[in-house]
Sequence to fold (268 residues):
Amino acid sequence: MPPLSLADIYRDPDRVIVTAHRGFSGRWPENTLPAFAAAIAAGAEIIEYDLHPSQEHTPVVIHDATVDRTTDGHGEISHLPLAAIKELNASWWEGSHAEGGFRSTTPAEVSSRIPTFSELLDAFSGRVGMNIQIKSNPPPEMLAETCRLFQHHNLYASAYFCVGTYAEGLTVRALDAKIPLCILEDQDRMDPDSIHRQHKFGACCVQPMRRDVTPGLCRTARSLGLPTNVFWANDADTAEKFARAGVQGLLTDWPDRVIAALQTLGCR
Fold:
């Protein structure tokens, strides 16, 4: 079989692509291997996840800069050795990023753990597209290791880095100019001029916030060949609203709900 390709994923302009935000995080502990496996099983074409460094600069898959919200531990992830991180239970947050909450008595899954970037790639590279968010100002050692693993797993066709600023994008390019990039600097104030700026920079796609999305913005992005992946939609009405506006992708905590809604609209 040919290698997985984002170009193929987005080839049909009438199909709205579903990205599972932190995996199937509405139902499974976010940013864990079971959440990503469930997202793939539900039909998501892309998984989104976040990377922070351990004390040793090992890239690990967690959204927050601290472990307090999602685990039974405390403290900044960058101050914790990997061995201590791997002892934590990663299922103390239950539900979506917007509507979930901290479990007060017991974790959802007794064996839930924070995966490393390497473990995630060993499990899923080549099986699904990847939106890899590098949290702001990563230490050089962690960023270099992240780029090395990207190259080792040959993700150039099937994955991209989301970074917070154009400056961070240039830092990635200095390490590996072939890694596709999505720039988040203009989120919450994205307009057609911003889309042109991202295109000129060489971004592979755009990720506007919900309030940014207009039919005009989507038309501009499509005219430039930039898939528009809006953050976020967790219900049928929101999915329909953005599909009709012309987005080519939706990030969601509930891929099953959104896929069902898009199928009803004929966008799948």
Q: What stands out?
A: Residues 3 and 126 are 7 Å apart (CA to CA). The first helix runs from residue 6 to 9. The chain has ten helices and ten strands.
